[in-house]
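Predict the assembly for these two chains.
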Amino acid sequence: MKIIIPVKRAKEIALHHTIKLSEKTLAKTKEAHNFLTDFADVILFIARLIRETFSRKFEVREFFHQCFNIGYKSLPLISVTGTIMGLVLTIQSRPVLANFGAETLLPGMVAISLIREMGPVITGLICAGKIASGMGAELGSMKVTEQIEAMEVSSTHPMRFLVVTRVWAATLMIPLLILYADALGIIGSWIGANIKGDVSFVLFFSQAFKNIDFLDFIPAVIKSFFFGAVIGIVGCYKGYNAGRGTESVGKAANSAVVLASLLVLIVDMIAVQVTDMLVK
Amino acid sequence: MKTEQTESVLLDSPKKSTKEPVIEINGLYKSFGNQEVLKNLSFKLFDGENLVVLGKSGSGKSVLIKCIVGLLRSDSGIINVFDQNVLTLKRKELDDVRQKIGFLFQSGALYDSMTVKENLEFPLKRMEKQLKQKEIDEKIIEALENVGLPEVLNKMPSELSGGMRKRISLARTIVVDPMIMLYDEPTTGLDPVTSDEISSLINDIQKKYKTSSIIITHDIECARMTADRLIMLQDGEVYEQGNLNKFEKSTDLIIRAFFK
């Protein structure tokens, strides 16, 4: 059956669809524009960060203050998570290895998985939650309450004082926290092994380190520096570019955690691929 | 509306005609996207005077003083501070000019993570001229005494009331001996008694530190207490300027809305 539509009505329908299509195209163009603008902002932010890092007046005192905040103040959290990580990994792996009569491989297996992957990634994600959100919220609230502008009129470069110090402190402290978490993970693993067995501390450690060489260690340390840099940059970028209202402080902290966690995983994936290619 | 009266109004006050301008603004434009906030704004701040800038919210008052210290970059115009156009200055030169200017932020903008003492130390330690710790301590005590709060030295900003925070913020501003003071709504959010105290402090600081000040406000009592001269902004333009008497007697409806 043919449906006959008057020409005028057909024109209206065509116009309606054209307008709808234009609106959609416009919205998509706007999204793409916003994405590109944000991307350009990030690049400019990193460029300024690098430029200010190598300027004459590095804020040494504030840098050490931030190292203390990021490193020392994260120790309790990292201690607990590191120990639990090793403990749980051991308790979960032990029955599987026992099925194959390979319980003696447990210390080595746990040590390798902790040092290569679990330690850096889990500690990185925890730091993304604690440090990136802290930076986002702190700098965001400083922006909202005009503290960053107050700093600027006091002839202090906020980028140099607030951002450079935080990013470098995170870049240096997070690898140390990761190594610390790895060490505590192995201790946690020894505790786990002793729940249903009796292994001496020395024997467990010698078994664990017998299976580890520098090729397990170095790539993990290198990628942990990138984790630190990513967490510092994202936290500072989100806080420094927060909007004006108090709501934007929460948004800055939240988006800092989400983006930093995502980037930690992406950096890890790239690092694993690169390591795999280089080792071959 | 009445910008053509600028020069005659300036001569209204004999005090101004004999003194040099410390800030001179000519044809200032500033817009955010399509919204023009300041349009062809021109005025002068003379040495030793308190200039009150009145205007309703959104009239561009805060944007104006942020342009003066270079926190915002205007689209065009000239902002001469001590005969140096801040729009053409390099970062180092701008920092030198900023050391002569004290800026009291609307929110106080005290650094939350620092004690009162550290808040006051912060600008002093960043001055071009390096001071000894003893000199710094003396200056801090003097500034706190000048705002009437010498006892809060080791407190955190979160432990202070709104009025106290404003005073400490004022102390942080005057501790570097500025030549020009810019006050962004100094009495906003304060009760009438504390507002009057802050207005008195503004006058005391002018006398003691011999500063020239621009006071952004929509608090008429503050304007009455502090103004040597007033400017009213309306839609980013100078709508009226003159002394307090002229504003009080004005029959203009927009001015009357403030001075009723």
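Chain B has two domains: 3-100+180-258, 110-177. The radius of gyration of chain B is 18 Å.
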